[in-house]
Amino acid sequence: MLGNRECQFERIDRIESEIAFTEQWRLRIDGIRLDAFDIEAADHESGELQFGGGLLRGCLYVGHGMACLFSLSMDLGAAVYHPRPPTLRRLPEPATLPIVRLIEPTTTPTTKPLPALRASYVEGAAQSLLAERDVLAVIDFGSARPACTDPRFLRIGLEPLGRPQLEVWRGHGPVSSGRHGALAWSADDDYLYFAIEVDESACGGLDAAAEHAYAEICRYLAEFRFGDGSDGHILRLWNYMDAINLGDGDDERYRHFCCGRARGITPAARNGYSAATAIGRRDGVRVLQVYGLAARLPGVAVENPRQVSAWAYPREYGPVAPTFARATRTPAGQLLVSGTAAVVGHRSQHVGDTPAQLEETLLNLDALLAAAGPQISARGLDATLLKIYLRQADEAAAVLADIDRRHPGAPGRMILLGDICRHDLSIEIDGIQV
């Protein structure tokens, strides 16, 4: 804690550039939690104040030692999430859990509404599905079915713990597809699917492979335009890599991935982080696989009031915090849920107890849906495709039975054998609300 309160507030001048763009809006302070507004030094060793906070589209949240709540009366039709500065390396432990509230824009959109992405889990042959004109992507898991070379097809080396299913995304019209260097893509008038696979050995390791993958994605998105001339806005990302927990401390492979991703994603993060998942494969293939979804209209980042935002994690979790939001609410009113586990605040809960971790994970999912707004919350998990990642195969039957009991109406579930990004977590769930 800095000793001189006046000195603390003088240092706010240093970060005015971080919030200068808020001058475009009329800000109305709803309320301030004064106990959390006491500014703490981010770096207790040097006494330097480091700030990390952001604007979500339609709401403001502030982290990294500050937590205050604002409402936005927007002069512009599209507020933007302001990401943590990409140069920020030392992360303080937040004094409180983040305060997050979505405030709907007061302006009426003048652009064509975005239709909902149609996603499903199906059994069948990939080739037959890819022959259909509205299919954006077919994601296969495991090695049971034959692969194909269509750019809309991607195989992930996570073995299913149950009947093999394909994840299928459909657009609302004819789909075009192709390859741009190492990046595969497909698009209709509303959505863009993209995927890239990067050989770690060709880049010199996972850190460099992650930077390369995200730099390629950013370069492609900088050039891509939909048919009406709209830019592509990232809504969701998935990351799969071999041996995610290998290595101790900062030598862990997941931490290497986070460092590389943060460097590579900087251009795309100018408007904020999207929802994301990162899971470890066990196939021994040192190839980083990244695929994602973009749209012609931007989404809204959603944070979980039960959890510290991932980008605000303290230094103990690595030299660079994970750069993702807990979920993205799409302009079509769908929630794209990041990989969610038994983390409260920033601590893992119920280590070694998978049923208890599942219970905590479902509580986190319920809180996240509530934070996304009443319409999304009302539909809940019973309107959400669930993808469950499990560390121990012999626990699959019990986990599925528990989820079926709690959410019998869910439109689809897929359970996969994989390693969670923290070694003390045994289960993670992500989802697409349909």
Sum this structure up briefly.
This protein is 20% helix and 29% strand. It is an alpha+beta fold. The termini are far apart.
What does this structure look like?
Pfam families: FkbO_Hyg5-like_N. GO terms for molecular function: lyase activity. This is Chorismate lyase / 3-hydroxybenzoate synthase. Keywords: Lyase. With 434 residues, this protein is an alpha+beta fold. The chain has 2 domains: 110 residues, no CATH class; 316 residues, RutC-like (60s Ribosomal Protein L30, Chain: A, 2-Layer Sandwich), CATH 3.30.1330.40. Helix content is 20%, strand content 29%. The strands form 6 sheets. A 6-stranded mixed β-sheet has the order 9-10-11-14-12-13. Strands 15-16-17-22-20-21 form a 6-stranded mixed β-sheet, with helices on one face. Helix 5 runs parallel beside helix 6. The longest helix has 18 residues. The chain is globular and about 50 Å long. It starts with a helix and ends with a strand. The N terminus is likely disordered.
Cross-sheet strand order for the largest sheet: 9-10-11-14-12-13
- Look at the structure and name the CATH superfamily of the largest domain: RutC-like
Under the CATH scheme, which class of the largest domain?
Alpha Beta
Total number of helical segments?
9
Bulk shape? globular
Total domain modules = 2
- Structural class of the helices, strands and pairings? alpha+beta
Reported CATH architecture of the largest domain:
2-Layer Sandwich
Strand percentage: 25-35%
Biggest β-sheet, characterized?
6 strands, mixed
Overall pLDDT, averaged?
A: 81
What integer value in Å does the Rg equal? 21 Å
